[in-house]
Amino acid sequence: MQKCENCNSQFGWEKVFKSFWWAYRPIECDNCGNTHKITILGRLTGAAISVVPMMLFFNYLSPFDSSSLTISTGLIIGIVGLLVAPYVIQYKRTY
Questions:
Q1: Are 36 and 93 in contact (CB under 8 A)?
Q2: Separation CA 16–CA 66 (nearest Å)
Q3: 24 vs 17, 20, 27, 38, 45, CA distance in Å?
Q4: What is the pLDDT along the chain (95 residues), one digit of tens a residue?
Q5: What is the dihedral of CA 38, 39, 45, 48, to 10 degrees?
Q6: What is the 3-state secondary structure (H, E, C) of the chain?
Q7: How far is C-alpha 45 from the geometric centre of its chain's CA atoms?
Q8: How many CB atoms are located within 10 Å of the residue 65 CB?
Q9: How many CA atoms lie within 13 A of 13 on its CB side?
Q10: Across the strands, what pairs with 36?
Q11: Would you kindly state where each structural domain of the chain is located, as residue ranges?
Q12: Distance separating alpha carbons of residues 16 and 67, to the nearest angstrom
């Protein structure tokens, strides 16, 4: 999980998830007040971890004959990716 570059306090999962979900809002450290913005690599990583596995499943890995089962499983894979994304997204302190 991402930490503040100034005071090394850890950002909460919920704070990072909300920032990622709502158009990459900057995160403000609760301890020291420094602002951190998501990096370009962090944006790409977040998108890749939430969308790419779902698309790979839809296009190449689906073992199901049922469209509804394929879509349901793909959506579950996408949701799991969204829930894991806050652990790998990178932020950088703004000066």
A1: yes
A2: 36
A3: 9, 5, 9, 6, 13
A4: 788 888 989 999 999 999 888 888 999 999 998 999 999 998 899 889 988 988 888 888 878 788 888 888 888 998 999 999 999 988 998 87
A5: 80
A6: CCECCCCCCECCHHHHHHHHHCCCCCEECCCCCCEEEECHHHHHHHHHHHHHHHHHHHHHHCCCCCHHHHHHHHHHHHHHHHHHHHHHCCEEECC
A7: 7
A8: 7
A9: 5
A10: 27, 93
A11: 13-93
A12: 33
Structure tokens, 82: 């969204």
Joined tokens for residue 36: 């951190």
CA distances from residue 10 to 3, 7, 15, 38, 55 in whole angstroms, order as listed: 4, 9, 10, 15, 32
